[in-house]
Amino acid sequence: MPTTLAEPLNPELLGPSTAVHLRSIDRFARAHDASHYLLVPDAVLSPVDAAGVARAFDAVRAAGRTLTFRSGGTSLSGQGVSGDILVDTRSGFRTIAIEDEGRSVRVEPGATVRQVNTRLARYGRKLGPDPASEIACTIGGVVANNSSGMACGIVENSYRTIESLLLVLPSGTVLDTAAPDADDRLRAAEPEIADGLLALRRRLLDSPANVEIVRRQFSMKNTMGYGLNALLDFDDPVRILEHLVIGSEGTLAFVAEARFRTIEIKPAIATGLLVFDTLSDAMAALPGLTALGLATIELLDAASLRVAQGLSDVPPAIASIEVRDHAALLVEVHAQDAEALAVDTTTALGHFAALPLAIDATLTTDAAERAALWHVRKGLYTAIAGARPSGTTALLEDIVVPVERLLVTCERLIELFSAHGYEDSVIFGHAKDGNVHFLLNERFDDPESLARYRRFTDDLVELVLEQQGSLKAEHGTGRIMAPFVRRQYGDELTDIMWDVKRLLDPSGILNPGVVLSDDPDSYLHDLKRVPTVEKEVDRCVECGYCEPSCPSKSITLTPRQRIVLRRDMAWAEERGDDALLAELRADYDYEGVQTCAVDGMCGVACPVDINTGDLVRRLRAEQASTIEDGLWDVAAKSWGTVTKVGGVALTVADALPAPLVTAATRVGRAVLGADTVPLYDAGLPRGGSTPPRPDSPADARAVFFGACIGTMFGAEGHREGSRDAVSALLDRAGIPVVIPDDAGGLCCGTPWKSKGHLAGYDRMTERVLASLWAASRQGALPVVCDAASCTEGLHVMLAKGVDAHPEYAGLVIEDATTFVAREVLPRLDVRRRLDRIAVHPTCSTTALGATGALTALASAVAEDVYVPDGWGCCAFAGDRGMLHPELTASATAVEAAELRDAERERGFDAFVSANRTCEIGMTRATGRGYRHVVEVLEELTRP
Q1: What is the pLDDT of residue 437?
Q2: Would you call 133 exposed, middle or buried from its count of C-beta atoms within 10 A (0-12, 13-18, 19+)?
Q3: Runs of H (alpha helix) within 550-638
Q4: Which end of the chain is more exposed for a tag (fewer CB within 10 A), N or C?
Q5: What residues contact residue 803 under an 8 Å CB cut-off, 6+ apart?
């Protein structure tokens, strides 16, 4: 296989604004999506606007090539992969524009559903489509797949809530369907399309039998084939075109912008789990439950309940039952306020009381209890996909049938699982819509397994069509069901679909093999290989949920890409492709290893609990030289001295001309490597303060672990740092604390762990945990740390240490933000409040669940608390921001821009966070002095 390819397209036709990615690492990293298909593109294009896409169409057509659009990469049916030209629409299309007080929103295809809903939440609104992948799926995919979800059904999906589209047709014509003269423009630019669409409409209307089929098919959730209901629902060419493009999976046109009608949020929610003795009982209850107007009715079959019983937080409703033929419905009541919720809940509970339930029903509004109930539903994928055998692929499929046929369909599905030997497969999904999902584990590198998959698919198709259902409800036709469109719709309607394709894309340049295919075996081609790799990441399902929160996503690689490239390198090695392997390895060091912030945010988002930072730390450990590892081990023995020297060095550097110090560090980086010598700049503070002296008062109520970064880095503006501020606040609140012996020489271990210096990390772990165990009086006192990342580091250290010292499980370690908000703030008198404060949550406050405490402290000192919608990990990551400042610059760009816009509207009196290195990173990014929130609290509560 060729590695880096020659230029496949004419650069003059593409234009200068479209980036062309030809390196193997770029092509292979973007080849993988959440589906079980894999095609490696010859090139990846990143246009930045509609005109750039139009030029790409011209270039692709001129070269006789084809292209496929790719955005979030969460699609499950193979519609986002290409062996030719892949067009990245996530990098350059991220604009979100709120209109009419949130009642309408214009969005470009690269923005995620969560990003849009976060912006809309300020107005009490949200998008209609509510896919489970909302954390990562983008608007481009939502429109292309006509996405729906758990609650929206077919009433508030993309087809029903899109008001207009900005389209780029394969010819290069750009059409805004919101324009008052859009119909005239279409007729002027594309008369054949305008006339052809009306001709296809007449052709369909002339066949009452086909009209009935289309009406019946689209009375359910249905993403199989093209949405021919557009030919019935509209009578003007622009609206027909607009709605044919919705759900067309990038095969008819490019959507450069979509305008949605938004939905009102009903914030008062109660959740419950209805457990029935049999699936039949659950299905019999479904019509009555649907008539109640429940927002959500999610089905879990008996196999799902057995899996759920193995979850750590299994709800009492199913923990104690002996699951035989049981089934459950997860239900939710949504209301505008607590009063309305109380009325609706009473009505619902009255209805539940008459049902043949195995356990009495309840509805809860408690956040923790609701989360546990939803974990039953969402944890199924984690439990099954995460535990699948190495080398297998997790297949998440979906079908839909009329609700009255759901029982027999589920029963037959269970029989098919058994007949084909798919053990541990579960059925779950959106019962009120007749739409269920099922999960299979299969391997595609074995002919016998592939033959089994073919036989199962044949039986599945026969079952669903026999029940008058659709083979795809939500996930799109893609490659997986394209060969079966003709079987579902018949020849005449399928021929109309092919005529739609030829009318809009006569050259066939857009996403061939997707939605429609004349090859009956095409769904078995290009199946994904999943070679075994490192244990930390081997269970990755390549869903992409980790990507939006990754700080390096816009500069190098995402967690998914770091993992799939390990698989690609393993595959290249298996095949003996030495050239490809060498090229991938060479580029992976910087892109995969050195620019990973190891912040753990990917682990928070991952449905199978993978922290890709664990892999990166392992790789760094393998790369670490014996000399470097030994030096860090020595540093662990005398860390107090090291931090003091580092602080003094920063103070000296602060007194010298910044260009002089920067030049010196550049020389060091050139000689010793950019990942060894930090780059100094004028934005770095001077050295910090002296560590607190050991103390152990008899009436102590906590242990204070002052983070060593307070010694290394001074506070913003040469003020008191967080370590001194916490000490002052504790004293002011009358809370005596223990200061451990050798406090200045203790560290959370992150510098060693993040760099892979395991000997030094083990040494520091032993010292710190032994010291905290003694200082806490064998776990009797909580340990409080003033830096969130260090608190998280101590948690990680403790999780490791309890293996050798089980008694350490009694240690309680919490961040200063949570301790101060709970124990100290009620004892303080805030004498003056600021008008407005900007807050930067951190990856560590997120992981610790401390972001709420951070904002609570900010609310105590300011009237208005502003948290940027686009906040994310700053990627300073200890010293990573000094080793690779370009990483922090990229990671903070969106948040910094949003903050500038907010500041132009109304200024801020303070900028706060919860960790010194994050504060440095944000100060560097914004030019505004960030401080720890406790520093501001301490100043405003002084007597």
Answers
A1: 94
A2: buried
A3: 559-575, 578-588, 601-605, 612-623, 626-637
A4: C
A5: none
List residues bridging with 149 in a β-sheet.
Answer: 130
Across the chain, which distance is largest between two alpha carbons, in Å? 91
DSSP notation for 836-880: EEEE---HHHHHHT-HHHHHHHHHHHEEEEE--TT------TTTH
Residue with tokens 């214009």: 106
Q: What type of residue is 199?
A: A
Amino acid at 408: V
Tens digits of residue pLDDT in 667-690: 443 444 555 545 545 566 777 778
Instruction: Supply 305's token pair.
Output: 């309940």
Place of tokens 């260009």: 659
Do 86 and 5 contact (CB within 8 A), yes or no?
A: no
Backbone angles phi, psi at 112, to 5 degrees: -80, 160
Among 550, 541, 556, which Cα is nearest to 589's? 556
Q: 886-914 pLDDT, tens per residue?
A: 999 999 999 999 999 999 999 999 999 99
Q: Supply φ then ψ for residue 564, to 5 degrees.
A: -65, -30
The residue with tokens 């799109």 is 476
Q: Quick check: 126 and 260 in contact, CB under 8 A?
A: no
C-alpha 822/C-alpha 817 separation (Å) is: 9
**pTM value?**
0.91
SS3 (DSSP) at 490 = coil
Q: What is the pLDDT of residue 1?
A: 44
Which residue, 520, 506, 269, 532, is CA-closest to 392?
Answer: 532
- The three-class DSSP label of residue 470 is strand
Long-range CB contact pairs, 893-902, < 8 A, 24+: 893/554, 893/925, 894/870, 895/840, 895/868, 895/870, 895/871, 895/922, 895/925, 896/922, 896/925, 896/926, 897/870, 898/868, 898/869, 898/870, 899/838, 899/868, 899/926, 899/928, 900/926, 902/838, 902/866, 902/868
Asked if residues 772 and 665 have their Cβ atoms less than 8 Å apart, the reply is no
- pLDDT confidence tier of residue 377, bands split at 50, 70 and 90: confident
Contact 616, 880 (CB under 8 A): no
